[in-house]
Amino acid sequence: MNPVKRLLVATDLSAPARHAADRAALVAREVGASLDLFHVANVTAVEKLRLLIADVPAETGQRVLDAAREEMRELAANMLKQHGIAAGVQVASGPVLAEIIGHADTISADLLVLGARGSSFMRHLLVGSTAERMVRKTRWPMLVAKQPPHEPYRTLLVPVDFSPFSLRALRNAQAVAPGADVVLLHAFEVPFESKLRFAGIEDELLARYRIAARQEALGKLRELRDEVGLPPERTRLIVLHGDASRNIIEQEQEQDCDLIVMGKHGESVLEDLLLGSVTKHVLAESQGDVLVSV
């Protein structure tokens, strides 16, 4: 990823979206980038209401747009006061995803920032929400902010599978949080382990395979670390056996990471057609923010 020069925050003006705007301001200040706020007003709902109820004033849609512009100006003023970042403001109406993607193209955004809706059991509503649908369609790295920010990112968790997406994710991590420590994580499983056990393969042989696989992965992690120029004293290398999704969520907490950076897809060719299952799981289950690399 090239240096981040322009961030675009797509906001619905909810509380989680305001957290996303605050996070974007911290990132913009740290990397020296400009920041734009973008809101798509739901004028379509007003027009449908007018078809059902005759006395809804014709100017109601315009009032919705005016109210949204006023809220956006207030949000920009608060960001200038709190973070010293002067943000551009734009309000549009129309299909949400198409408007966001079109505006990102227009301003040549380098990074999209959105808020994740809800917490605890509500996190599962992220699946199918604007955030996940944007991840499926976006051509830009996308930061999904989940927590109110208090400081720049300090520790990044970067899960890698050694596919080309791994290097890209790591470079995106450096571009967004150049001052952070990095935890490089690789999770592996023994191919067809259950079938091998059923076929009578001894546990000792499987254990030897795991040891060899772990050593090979550590070597690859060191190569990846050195290729992107990460300082060894600020980089942790972790190789774990087991399910990738579970290990990522566990290590987020154990390593006290405040941002997970991962590719949109895994190494499977099939996953090029959809949002990777591991990425989808992490988006739904992580406690902290997630940067999805493309």
Could you explain how this protein is built, in words?
Pfam families: Usp. The protein has a ten-stranded mixed β-sheet with strand order 3-2-1-4-5-10-9-6-7-8, sandwiched between helices. It has helices at residues 15-31, 43-52, 60-83, 96-107, 130-137, 164-176, 193-198, 203-228, 244-254, 277-285; strands at 6-10, 34-41, 88-93, 111-115, 142-145, 155-159, 181-188, 235-241, 259-263, 289-293. The chain has two domains: 1-147, HUPs (Rossmann fold), CATH 3.40.50.620; 153-294, Rossmann fold (3-Layer(aba) Sandwich), CATH 3.40.50. Helix content is 46%, strand content 20%. The chain has 294 residues and is α/β, with parallel strands linked by helices.
Output the CATH topology of the largest domain: Rossmann fold
Mean of residue pLDDT?
Answer: 83
Helix count equals 10
Largest sheet strand order: 3-2-1-4-5-10-9-6-7-8
The helical percent reads: 40-55%
The global form is: elongated
Rg from alpha-carbon coordinates: 22 Å
Low-confidence segments, given as residue ranges, are 118-128, 267-274
Following the backbone from N to C, one meets helices and strands in this order, namely EHEHHEHEHEEHEHHEHEHE
Q: Report how far the terminal alpha carbons are from each other.
A: 9 Å
Count of separate structural domains: 2
Based on the structure given, which CATH architecture of the largest domain is correct? 3-Layer(aba) Sandwich
Give the CATH superfamily of the largest domain: HUPs
